[in-house]
Amino acid sequence: YYVDTGMESQTQQPSVREPFLGFFRGDVHSELAGYRERRPVAPLRLPDGRTGWLLTRYDDVREALADPRLVKDGLLSPLGFRPQLPPDIYAATARNMLTVDPPDHTRLRRLLQGAFTARRIEGLTPAITAIADQLIDDLATPGPHDLIEEFALPLPITVISELLGVPAEDRGSFMESASVIVAGPSRFHELPGAMIGMIGYIRDLVATKRRQPGDDLTSALIAERDGGDRLTEDELVSTVYLLLLAGYDTTANLIGNAAWLLLDDRARWDAVRTDPGRLPQAIEEALRHESPVQLGTHRLAVEDVTYGDQVIPAGSTVLLSILAAHRDGRQYAEPGAFEPARERSPHLAFGHGIHHCLGAPLARLEARVALTTLVSRMPELRLVDGFTPRWRASALMHGLEDLLVTSS
Ligand code: HEM
């Protein structure tokens, strides 16, 4: 795929210059800064040959997230192309609150809203603490350990699996499918297989829970489905699919990115170690500074819309870069500096408008518990000598390949 970096041409016609994948493998912040400063509404050549538009300024991204003229479009991928899937698999992945507009969105979101209130989520603190403690127990040797593989990834998958009633022995296989699904173009050829496998698994899970309901969200959704006409079978499967994916890699990236930002400077680590009460603010700043979602949000323009001085024609895919918006100097003082005590500044890490992340209270709680457990149980933790962060080559997500630490 190719992307117009917009550095040379100011015309509306995209020019083919640079491999898309290369763009996401380079220094993504400086690449995105180039767009934000020189071409804030930039045309991109999408893999299917159509033109997409990349927004990188805070004001534009915020406005677009809540713009009713920019709608969801089923299973359109963030880069504007669709994987080839059998129709029944397509139907079972494309119908959830994240992929539809009102009134379906309102109906599907309402079904789950009660399970994700701040109070309900706060009640999960002991369960999440037990999961974090168990993972730290497993890190008993001085290391080196990879905190991504051994802590940041297993924690959210365990939490969401317990919420959905997924048995422990099944988690490994769908962790693998999930990582293919969120990887973006680098593993695009594996995508249909991973989605088919994941949907097959969820259908089996639904069948099991239908026979033997438990005290879990999957069983609650089945009761809604079977007790009325509030959601279809495809919507049920698709909602479980969304919950499994939406809360996994994103939260792992938040935990990994925040742990790295704190460990990277001993004074920061010591500040939260001696006073874990500072963690929530540091987590908000990590959400801004290294946002877990980089280009994951996208919309379809149903009419011509003007952003900046650019008309985006009806029918275009619009890609919104939260990562770029968070480094916009028009919105934040010294946007490139990680300041854990930064005065609360609104960020877009969880989106904005009607699709604002349903799981935000859960993600915040998981990050707080994970980091509190880490600083209290492993106060001597440090990065291995010479550690340099490598970002995963994903168009969708922004997270570290690994985070090598030792407590020796
Ligand atoms: C939506 C980010 C964790 C469930 C979103 C959106 C963003 C986001 C940016 C909006 C997408 C758009 O407008 O197109 C994040 C981040 C997380 C996180 C950064 C972790 C740090 C979670 C968790 C769950 C979850 C833990 C649940 C288990 C959802 C759902 C939606 C959503 C269901 C769709 C809401 C709707 O369309 O009404 N998330 N998320 N997320 N997220 Fe999260």
From TrEMBL:
Transmembrane helix among keywords: no
InterPro entries per record: Cyt_P450 (IPR001128), Cyt_P450_B (IPR002397), Cyt_P450_CS (IPR017972), Cyt_P450_sf (IPR036396)
A GO MF term: oxidoreductase activity, acting on paired donors, with incorporation or reduction of molecular oxygen
Entry annotated with the keyword Cell inner membrane: no
UniProt pathway: Antibiotic biosynthesis; mycinamicin biosynthesis
Spans traversing the lipid bilayer: none
Domain of life per record: Bacteria
GO biological process: antibiotic biosynthetic process
Keyword terms: Antibiotic biosynthesis, Heme, Iron, Metal-binding, Monooxygenase, NADP, Oxidoreductase
Family indicated by similarity: Belongs to the cytochrome P450 family.
Name of the protein in question: Cytochrome P450
